[in-house]
Amino acid sequence: MSDDLLARVCPVCGRRVSKLYGGLCEDCYRASHRLAELPSAIEVTVCRACGSYKLGRAWVRPLTSDPLSEAVRGAVAREVRARGRLVALEVVEWGGGLVRVKVLGTPAEGVEPYEEEHTVALRVRWGLCTSCAMVKSKREAARVQVRARGRPLTKGEIEAVKGIVQQAVGSRRGAPDLVDVVEREGGVDFVFSSLSGAKLAVAALRRELLASVLETRKAVGATSGRRLARRTLRVLLPGFRRGDVIEYLGRLYYVLDVRRAGARLLDLETYSELSIGEARPLIERSRVVLKREELEPALVASATSGVVDLVPLGSQRAVTLSVSGHPVWLKPGAYVLVANVGHRLYLLPKLEETQAK
Prior knowledge:
The chain is an alpha+beta fold and 357 residues long. It is built from 7 helices and 23 strands. It has helices spanning 3-6, 26-32, 67-79, 130-136, 155-170, 195-208, 279-285; strands spanning 36-37, 41-47, 53-55, 58-60, 81-82, 85-95, 98-106, 114-127, 142-148, 178-184, 187-192, 212-223, 226-237, 245-248, 251-259, 262-267, 273-276, 286-290, 296-304, 307-312, 319-322, 335-341, 344-349. It is elongated and about 120 Å long. The termini are far apart.
């Protein structure tokens, strides 16, 4: 018998084959080389309140309406140890304290992929995730403070802010992270049991409002060897509102509109419009010169060649002013507003009251 023929006889089963794998035929090689190993038992921990489940030390929010199935599949994928090249991993069924797992793969290069099944014990534990435990204990992990620079929030602003946050929190699956809502110091605070819930609220506020955000962190103790910190996210709205006169970078502007994308301003020297989208510098460097309630309404009697005659409605005494340019809204019979800044009068277009809230 030639050496070549002897090399193709499996020493275990005695079969003659065209190719050996590690000195064995393919069947014997498969039998002695498992595709994967799993522990004798798989354990999953699921939050009984929100359905979050634990992978390692981290709690994971479910993506489907069946968090227990997600937890089992996630635990199996985490615990399986490949001994070859796995092509697919499937939890075939689970229940009755057992989970059956099917894997597809190959133990060595050149061996055709095949399936292998494993049945292991399944232990399910129910408890409370960190967020739900904190909600139950009313423990504060993060606080969102909404304020306006240099002034209290109006009642309408507070209600709008509360609506935005509550809608954002309501769209979140799982535990209600919002522990409390506190109106205080001309603003409103939202207390959260998780930082992720607070950040969700802040993201919603920034989508809807012109605001800058500052985050601070304060150590509040430790648990299980881990340091705990409480975060404060300060959402700052502009000190000005639609219809106010402000000073920004040394120039006077009339605030035509305030939206999430920025502010639309009217330059009081040139009557040209300016849009500013960067929230932080606009909020921090602007100063309210006149509130919209301090502007005086007037009626334009005539407007020609840069000279305007108007009658302030409060005094019924005609005033003549010189203006730069001739904006379209400045015409006889129009109602305008008069701003008195440093003993100088400026004419402003009257904005729709329904929008100036």
